[in-house]
Structure prediction request, 478 residues.
Amino acid sequence: MKRTVGIFLIAMLGGAVSLGLYKTFEKRSPFYNSRPEGIPVQAVSYTPGAAFDLPDFEAAAANSVHAVVHIKSEFQKKSMVYDDFFEFFNYGGRPQPREYISPYSAMGSGVIVSPDGYIVTNNHVVQEANEISVTLNDKRSYKATVIGTDPSTDLALIKVDESGLPFLSYANSDEVKIGEWVLAVGNPFNLTSTVTAGIVSAKARNINILGSKGAIESFIQTDAAINPGNSGGALVNTRGQLIGINAAIASGTGYYTGYSFAIPVNIVKKVVDDFMKFGKIKRAYLGVYYREIDDQFAREKGFSDLRGIYVEDVVPGSSADKAGVKNGDVIVKIDNHPINGKAELMEVIGQKSPGDHVIVLANRDNKEIEIPMTMQSEDEQATNIKTDKVMVHGATFEPLSENEKARLNIENGFKITRLENGKFRNSGIKEGFIVLGIDRQPVTSAAELREALTTRNGGILIEGVYPNGLRAYYGIGL
Prediction:
């Protein structure tokens, strides 16, 4: 008994000594009491089974899978649209070789947007198809008819003969925030009703994939995994509302590597409504030629702000011209939507219809002014154009007179009549130079000249002649 008590007392003494030594060294430690004064310490407790404030995808997934369909498109011949674009673009390379189901078939997805069978999908899923089959999540199958296709947005509207179908309601894609949780719903690799989750990584992405004149690219970028077969499927928020139509991924292999892109639902709504009401797209046009503002251009112009787009030329008789927009204006907002580049501009204008009234906020001579504007259609704009003069990148081009053509023995050309600071002056071109062709294609109209100088990316080769007969070539980076 005495021995046991002795051992216990020794243990108690050892513990006290250890505790004293610990406190002594703790106070001498540079980490002791290192918390800055005034910063409170909050205790964090964990209760088994307690719910954390995390996103709940169950309701959104359950709501979405029944409104997303599987689409099979059959072709009599290989579709160049499908071959080059279906389901993804190969980021920085050529499209990957693709296997076809006999005779030629493509698989994709679609989203039911009304209970009477209207389905929105990508244009590249159904364009050139001679037969389209739609399979619902409950395995019912239908033949679909094409209501309309729009290559400029890569959207299409098809319809099946059925009623009482589940459908997705529209959200407002302008209100989508970077970092917001989203779900991608579709049929990758022919696997039906697949749901993946991610966040919105960026907005207003222009990835130069559509390529057509007047293409509207302002994609929502996400990291929700999509793969071949997801094209035309839904991008939804955590409330199960449609915020976009999945269209492409950036990949060197053809499979998901972290980047996916969806068409904003506000553009989708415009296309669907036009097809339902008119059977075609009625698109509004602003009527300006512009350039994005970077740091170098801002220094050249003496701008203190990099916001907005710089108006280089106003199409005479256009919506912008009638409203009073002038060369040199910097458009910073349209209907309170910030405009910082081509993607934002195309997204806002792409939602407008001829006859819509908008408010343009522009910076003119270091003062912000509001310009009320009524949007015109392309046909109205073309009818109102009164001149072939083109102003772009600091250069003013005017068509040649018949006497000038005869003297130089040429059939077409546009003379540079004025040069300001910009890409043409920087390249060494002088006033009086006559542009005959761009990238070895003759320039025969003002429209061709504008398109070549405002829609191409990278470098261009300009061929021309000076009034003294001297031929010259210039490479210009756009």
Notes: The domain at 285-384 is CATH 2.30.42.10 (Pdz3 Domain). The chain has three domains: 56-281, 285-384, 390-477. Residues 7-47, 82-102 have pLDDT under 50 and may be disordered. The first strand starts at residue 68 and ends at 74.
